[in-house]
UniProtKB/TrEMBL annotation:
Feature: compositional bias, Basic and acidic residues: 215-228
Protein name: Ciliary-associated calcium-binding coiled-coil protein 1
Pfam family membership, one: CLAMP
PANTHER family, A to Z: CILIARY-ASSOCIATED CALCIUM-BINDING COILED-COIL PROTEIN 1, COILED-COIL DOMAIN-CONTAINING PROTEIN 189
Cited InterPro entries: CLAMP
Residues covered by region (Disordered): 200-235
Organism: Mytilus edulis
Superkingdom of origin organism: Eukaryota
Length: 287
């Protein structure tokens, strides 16, 4: 007889069925159709785990629930079996999280839940998981042992200690562009010195507007005063003749080139004497 038939015939069995106690039938069917990332988001909404990205306890809870549902999906469980599995996982995890139950007592709770699955013992009342086969029950026991009880001390420590808050800050330095009124500097490969840039490349400052009365003052300064005597322009070269110019040029040339001529003449005489001495030596050797 199936679990649904037992639930209809015996009201005590109906209350003992662990399927759809935590997850409803609609939620279970929807979870079976999702991938792991979407499944995690759905469980986060169901159990209101909004701070899982910063709270370690919520993050571990969401991770454990997601792992259990995904494992059940990989085992090919139907919605009733998956919901029953999640009820067991949820109750055992809540014993650690909320009641801080020790490992031995929680193992006893798990043993009591798994009783009644074996058909060889009809006198043992089912705890509400009789829709599982013996092979499935062994796989569930192995999974819960490796996922929960092997890490039991770690879960106990996490749920009994307050998480330390860490404030992480980052300093950012932002460079603001120069005003549009200033020209941008040239690229580095075209860079020049500051004085060269300021003298020949930089845009000159705008010419200030003329001040009222400045033109009148300037015109007054440019107008010669009547009282000042005018100085006639005198050209000193107008009265010079060609002979005078030639005489001036010859005198300047003698002053500048006279010493040079004497030096050249002295060097020529010295070379001439050296050559004569060499010739005399040659004649003496020949004799």
């Amino acid at each position: 007889m199936e679990a649904s038939d037992c639930a209809k015939d015996d009201p005590d069995d109906e209350t003992a069925v662990l399927a759809f106690k935590v997850l409803s039938e609609e939620q279970t069917k929807k979870l079976l159709t999702l991938e792991v990332e979407d499944m995690q988001k759905e469980l986060c909404e169901i159990f209101k785990l909004k701070n899982y990205s910063t709270d370690l306890q919520e993050a571990s809870t969401l991770d454990y629930y997601t792992g259990a549902v995904w494992w059940g999906k990989e085992q090919g469980l139907n919605p009733q079996q998956l919901s029953g599995l999640f009820t067991v996982v949820y109750n055992l995890f809540e014993n650690v999280k909320e009641q801080h139950m020790n490992k031995v007592d929680n193992l006893k709770e798990f043993k009591a839940v798994m009783m009644g699955i074996e058909p060889e013992y009809p006198d043992v009342k089912s705890a509400g998981l009789d829709f599982f086969s013996v092979a499935q029950a062994k796989a569930i026991a192995q999974y819960i042992n490796t996922s929960l009880f092997q890490h039991y001390n770690l879960y106990q420590f996490m749920f009994t200690h307050t998480q330390a808050e860490e404030i992480i800050g980052t300093d950012l330095s932002i460079e603001v562009a120069k005003p549009s009124t200033l020209p941008f500097p040239p690229p580095l490969h075209e860079g020049v010195q500051d004085d060269m840039y300021a003298s020949f490349i930089a845009t000159p400052p705008p010419t200030p507007p003329p001040v009222e009365g400045a033109e009148d003052t300037k015109s007054d300064q440019e107008t010669p005063k009547e009282d000042e005597p005018t100085v006639p322009d005198i050209d000193a070269f107008n009265d010079l003749t060609v002979d005078d110019v030639r005489e001036v040029i010859e005198s300047v040339a003698k002053e500048m080139l006279g010493g040079l001529q004497n030096d050249l003449a002295a060097k020529l005489r010295e070379k001439e004497n050296n050559i004569i001495q060499r010739i005399n030596k040659i004649h003496k050797v020949a004799e």
